[in-house]
Amino acid sequence: MTKLSVNLNKIALLRNSRGRDYPNVLEYARRFVDLGVNGITIHPRPDERHARRQDAMDLGEMLGRFEAVEFNIEGYPSEEFLQLVESVRPDQCTLVPDGEDQITSDHGWDISGSSGILEMSLQRLQEAGIRCSLFLDPDIGQVRAAAQTGAERIELYTEEYARNYGLNTADHVFERYREAARLAEESGLGVNAGHDLDLNNLGRFLEIGNILEVSIGHALTIECIDCGMEAVVSRYLEICA
Known about the structure:
Shape: globular
Helix content: 40-55%
Mean pLDDT: 96
Strand order of the largest sheet: 1-2-3-4-5-6-7-8
CATH superfamily: Aldolase class I
């Protein structure tokens, strides 16, 4: 079974747009947990335009009461971010190579060009008992490099898969992801996935077979607006199962 982790950044963005604590991020996290999701994800950026540092601390405290629900914090391993994650101690930290002005994550790590920041960050987080995942394109060379860093998992950046879904290029792109996931598993890495997955394309992607977790936020939020939270989450859990 693949675990479903719901990314709450869009809920936080809606809250921030009005200057009030509405919608409340903790309330929505609890609602998703009550509907059976397996994890909650946030990506607090330096400008706090959606999830904030305080959200990370509040969610860490709340989710610690739910043994079966994992908390995943994503972000670029700046000193400020690492200190936050070490303080909160989520179940998992996904390291993402984002610049400060990026609208959203749009590429995976170039591990050989990371100037040692990944190794240093992984050591710190693992010493704090936090499982670490690296955000990667479906690139065989990067998967091989990731296996040498000491990370426990990778998260495959699935925008290319989603963009090609339904086109005549879909099968070729899908095979690249399947091969990357296969090599990761053979190299001792767990495989997560996320970005632009939705109710239409998730089922095919999970035919890869060894995906441990999918993190979905933007599409899931829109689908909840269209169809209601209960129906949407129920469908996602059915696909993941």
